[in-house]
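Suppose a colleague, Dr. K., hands you the sequence of a protein chain of 323 amino acids and asks what its three-dimensional shape might be. Before reaching for any lab equipment, you can write down a predicted structure in token form. Begin with the sequence itself:
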Amino acid sequence: MYNQSIKIYNEKNMYLNKYKKTIHSLDGEDGVIEYIFQVLNIKEGFTCEFGAWDGKFASNSYNLIKNCNWQGLLIEGDEGRFKELLQNHGQNKKVHCHNGFVGWGPEDSLDNILEKYNAPINFDLLSIDIDGNDYHVWDATKKYKPKVVFIEYNLLTPVEVDFVQEKNMQVHQGHSIKALVRLGKEKGYELIGAISGNAIFVQKEYFPAFNITDNSIDTIWPVEERDFMTYMSILYDGTIMLHGHKKLVLQNNFEINPKKMQVLPKHSRFLFTPRRFGLIKLFIRKIFMQKHAGKLGIASILKEIWVSLKRRVKKENIFSQPK
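The predicted structure, expressed as tokens, is then:
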């Protein structure tokens, strides 16, 4: 469970969450977006969203387009969903619908697609949700500078970890919020919120308008997400321990068995060499570890055992020696 004192501190800098309101978005993003653009004094703007799905379900743009007279570019790669997108927006002259996947190459980059539809360079809202390469697509966007960016992160990855999945359209692992904050700063953006796996950024020049005293991840990030995270630690003897949720959240909460995660067999897990059959066990562990690493060398193992034996004779008290 998360620390309640941390939660209280977070709420001071997570005040955007109190504006959560769902009209068509997934989890209150509509209300937060409405508030953000009230602060920025933007009433009729331009939004770009991908993957847009049908342009309505769980959309961060539909309310702006339908009820606030916004213009937009909605991008969806799946052909079936794109047909539904056209049904919902095809007759709206203020909305462009694009069928294609956004990547990082010269043809499929967001810069290239936005230019094709004459989008404003400094348009108002960019919403990225493609379950994988979100980081790489935003990183490749150089020409266009949206004022506000909503971008999905992997909420199962601990906030302490800077994780970026490989640049591959067939991989769908996502990225940690820490990696996105780092990228955002490199691109001139500051974090102002995080909602249900979406990090919210604004251009640095607009950040003071939100009166956030501390926008570090620890204070902005919804701390209750930690309840879904699994942590690993390693004990002195090489035993691997799991902490936290200890379940595969998106695989029906399948419980992880720590016994099946051990790298070292039980007989080879020790900090100090056991007195009973100690050198034999040490020899077995050395063989196992070198074989596991793919570089088995008996000569080097024998040399280490010889050194260990000499230390034992001298009764030296060091790691992997008898205590």
